[in-house]
Amino acid sequence: MLTKSSTELVRQRNSVLVLSVLRRHGQLAHTEISDFTGLSSATISAITTELEKAQIIEKSEQQAASGRGRPRVLLRQRRDCGYLIVVIISSDAVQYSLVDYAGKLIDRFSEERSHDPSGAGRFVQAVRTGLSRILDRSKISQEKVLLISISSKGLVNSTEPVLVWSPIFGSDQIDFESALRPEWQAKVILDNETLLVAAALGAREEIVKGADFRSLAALSLGHSIGLGIVRRGNETGQEVSAPNFGHMLHMAGGGLCRCGTRGCIEAYAGFYAILRSAFEVPLDTIPAKFVPVAELDKIAARARQGHRTSTFAFRQAGLALGNGLSRMLSLTERMPISITGPGTRYYDLLRQGIEEGLGQSHIVRMEGMPEIRVVPDEPILVFEGHLNRALSVIDQDIVISGVQGGE
Amino acid sequence: MLTKSSTELVRQRNSVLVLSVLRRHGQLAHTEISDFTGLSSATISAITTELEKAQIIEKSEQQAASGRGRPRVLLRQRRDCGYLIVVIISSDAVQYSLVDYAGKLIDRFSEERSHDPSGAGRFVQAVRTGLSRILDRSKISQEKVLLISISSKGLVNSTEPVLVWSPIFGSDQIDFESALRPEWQAKVILDNETLLVAAALGAREEIVKGADFRSLAALSLGHSIGLGIVRRGNETGQEVSAPNFGHMLHMAGGGLCRCGTRGCIEAYAGFYAILRSAFEVPLDTIPAKFVPVAELDKIAARARQGHRTSTFAFRQAGLALGNGLSRMLSLTERMPISITGPGTRYYDLLRQGIEEGLGQSHIVRMEGMPEIRVVPDEPILVFEGHLNRALSVIDQDIVISGVQGGE
DNA sequence: GATTATTTTCTCGACAGTCGAGAAATTTGA
DNA sequence: TCAAATTTCTCGACTGTCGAGAAAATAATC
């Protein structure tokens, strides 16, 4: 359904536009903003004075010497305009980061995670104390925290911050919104981890390719398997999604997965699955809860020396991934694939299987093999994705709610 | 990348909005347009007088008696504002329809299709003469034809009107844009047939559910298998896509498909595949080019009487469809599925397999079985989808290009 | 040191668009 | 014939963008 437009909406969108170029390029002068946005100088004046009055941006005292002429005055976000807390949940720890409005990291710590499975409720409690702790350490008042951005592996509700399914808690849903609302008035968003990786890669790619960028997928290999897809939207920036790829059906009636279903991709390509297959344990064995990476390294070493069942295990994993990717490509357009996560260290062993698995489908035979890149540093990408998404959400909210209220 | 907004853009969008409610509800009075759009009466006045001057809409002489008070004057599209030609390519015929700007069918005929496979070039030639013919018969000048909307089964380029792969011509690409450009200055669009079915169903659904509508998939069963997905977009109406579902990998190294690959869904669920499987022909047999429906009806009749291999054939087909749908659902959100096409007459035989195939995946076990509806009248939906899409494209183009030029 | 050239920022009036209020138009009912 | 009701139209206020040019501030030049 279409909806009506008004002149106020125009100002809102242009204000967000100004903030977004400021975010992308750091501090900028009046003229530069005008160049980047395509808006006239007069409009930039109007918008920036408004944003300055609302205490969202400020004039930087550091003058950029720009040859002769009136010196430029640089504008930048006010760091203390608001704060962001990033919570990254991984299988063995939870990392808390406090970030200011300009995207600068202020404080960070990690907390070990207890491995007891019973504790969805206890886990939420731990997150709440973690959040209090990072706030206390920084002496920032709670109202100044505008957004709490959480990420986890698993399946996430697309509209509300609810963890629908996760490798650790299974179908024990966690609703972060209602869990944090009593204490925090900040907005809470939750994203799948690999979605954030894809978002970060997409943002990088768009800087390089500009308007030529179309789409991209990120595949994360580890104990579990994640996939994120980012597509260029019409005008609303990029669209990202995190399908339930690890638990897509690879083979009906196949190996038993941690989720309880048979034949998921993860049941062939997850770390525990590779272990199981290398030791020729029956495929209906209940998977190990946790596999040390050292264990897999040993199998990989043997595979590299030509050991048959070890090689076979990685090959099976590759095939499952390749078949799955081909199915994903059948449902989307052709796009490059970036492989990331701890599993990238075995890419040499997985590669042949992946390519063969891809090649078994009509779409790949017709359009050719998609471009595959290996990008090992996943944690950096996750954090970068958090910042990209969270800060642009803050920009949006701040403009919609805060501009006229600032003075 | 975000892009700048201006007040002119606001007028453009609101004009398109006015045209779209006019299209949805037929002729409307000033006040009603105001109610439907949420725009103020003054704005409606401004926009409608502009559109009337540009000869896009007109006052209807038929006065709607509305009790006491000043009588309403109804506004409606001018039928002769422009015309649309709809070309529906199916496996045995090509249907041409001439439609006026108000969506009324003016003329229609079908032409048999020669089954010779060599003729991508000859086929394009046939389409060109078909288009000339429908224009000649109606005595409408060529410039008045604003859009030619074509549909076919197969894989379509998402940005240009290029048929990338089709059941009949294989990888012999057909670029309708360059084929028709010398004669026609009308815009040319090409969509996958099942995409249009999905679009039509989505539009119907949105009328019923309004803002509650989220997404929906249409599955077309026949000689080949098609899938269309429609999702509610942010504010830009609905987003539709037509994945290459029929040739998604069902089972690595499986039955030989018409496309030359092994193991496609179509190689299990297409009419030719059901035939092959019912007669226990080896799965690597080159598929029949064309299967009369009567032939399949016979198999279905036997299956309904309990004949084993016939039942098995339909069950295998259902499993392939169910597995494929579960994979699709793993990559999207949960959505209802409408099954359409000639294959719906065998739905009683397919159903169990489809449900079992769906149930083998994690996503369905977790979220439950998606709602499945059977909607047999596919041709009507295809045409309805054509009109929905084509006329809204025309509205958009007409507002962008034509409004100030009208006077 | 005064002047000129150059560059950036700011300001003003014109123009486009939406909205609310109320005037004008037109029919029904008393 | 007049009042009530309803729709359409019009006017002034407000918001927004833009182009042009004024104002500001520095570097180069004489």
Keywords:
Nucleotidyltransferase, domain 5, DNA-binding, alpha/beta, 407 residues, homodimer, 13 helices, Arc Repressor Mutant, subunit A, five-stranded mixed sheet
Topology (SSEs and partners):
The structure is a homodimer of 407-residue chains.
Chain A: H1 7-25, E1 28-29, H2 30-37, H3 41-53, E2 57-59, E3 74-77, E4 83-89, E5 93-100, E6 105-112, H4 120-138, E7 145-152, E8 155-156, E9 162-165, E10 174-175, H5 176-180, E11 187-192, H6 193-209, E12 215-221, E13 225-232, E14 238-241, H7 266-269, H8 271-278, H9 293-304, H10 308-331, E15 337-340, H11 347-359, H12 362-367, E16 372-374, H13 378-402
Parallel strand pairs in A: 4-7, 7-11, 12-15, 15-16
Antiparallel strand pairs in A: 1-3, 2-3, 4-5, 5-6, 8-9, 9-10, 12-13, 13-14
Helix pairs in contact in A: 1-3, 1-13, 2-3, 6-13, 8-9, 8-10, 9-10, 10-11
Chain B binds a DNA duplex (30 and 30 nucleotides) through helix 1 and helix 3.
Structure characterization notes:
The structure is a homodimer of 407-residue chains. Chain A is α/β, with parallel strands linked by helices and 407 residues long. Chain A folds into 3 domains: 7-77, Winged helix-like DNA-binding domain superfamily/Winged helix DNA-binding domain (Arc Repressor Mutant, subunit A, Orthogonal Bundle); 81-195 and 381-406, 2-Layer Sandwich (Nucleotidyltransferase, domain 5), CATH 3.30.420; 244-376, ATPase, nucleotide binding domain (Nucleotidyltransferase, domain 5). Helices cover 43% and strands 20% of the residues of chain A. Chain A contains 13 helices and 16 strands. In chain A, the strands form 4 sheets. The first copy, chain A, has a 5-stranded mixed sheet, with helices on both faces. Chain A has a 5-stranded mixed sheet with strand order 14-13-12-15-16, covered by helices on one side. The first copy, chain A, has a 3-stranded antiparallel sheet with strand order 1-3-2. In chain A, a hairpin with an 8-residue loop joins β9 and β10. The longest helix of chain A is centred in the C-terminal third of the chain and has 25 residues, at 378-402. The first copy, chain A, starts with 6 loop residues before the first helix and ends in a 5-residue tail after the last helix. The model of chain A has no long low-confidence stretch (mean pLDDT 91). The structure holds a DNA duplex (30 and 30 nucleotides).
